[in-house]
Design goal:
With 162 residues, the protein is mainly alpha-helical. It has one domain: Four Helix Bundle (Hemerythrin (Met), subunit A), CATH 1.20.120.450. 58% of the residues lie in helices and 0% in strands. The chain has 6 helices and no strands.
Length: 162
């Protein structure tokens, strides 16, 4: 692993940590009642976005080959179905706790992964196909999920003040 690759991994991990920190700060600021509102008319509710992000990050545990998902029950509600398609969602306080637990678990694994290991395959590509598509690596997953998180945090900001 060369110095540039180590620097790149450090930059991506710091971007992830900043985005998680900013999202956590926003979620701490938003009340459970505010999370029940749509971010704008006819759009997702905050509670749905919290569940969606939690399910997405939970799925990262297996995608990055760390462990099985902690909360697979969130997948059909927040990944396979749009907001309002499922009548009963988990309580906001439960989702907040799951969000924190999933992200703490993810960070624990990420902190222990060497820079070289970030350039290994993720779980959705076989060992045989990975040499043909080396960009399908763990670091690329983290880059795309950081952007995804930033996008939805941008939506959640609209709930501040509602």
């Amino acid at each position: 692993m060369n110095d540039q690759q180590q620097l790149f991994v450090k930059m991506v991990l710091e971007a992830w940590a900043r985005e998680i920190g900013a999202t956590n700060a926003l979620l701490e600021k938003l009340s459970d009642e505010q999370l029940m509102h749509e971010v704008s008319p006819t759009r997702n509710r905050g509670v749905y976005l919290l569940g969606h992000l939690t399910a997405e990050h939970d799925e990262m545990l297996s995608l990055l080959r760390f462990q099985e998902s902690m909360h697979p029950e969130l997948m059909p509600v927040f990944m396979d179905a749009p907001d309002k398609a499922v009548a009963t969602l988990p309580p906001v306080q439960q989702l907040r706790a799951q969000w924190n637990a999933v992200n703490e678990t993810l960070m624990g694994y990420m902190d222990r992964l060497s820079a070289n290991e970030w350039f290994t395959r993720h779980a959705k590509i076989s060992e045989q196909d990975f040499p043909k598509e080396p960009h399908r690596n763990r670091l690329n997953v983290l880059i795309s999920r950081t952007s995804h998180l930033a996008y939805h945090r941008g939506q959640l900001i609209f709930l501040d003040g509602k």
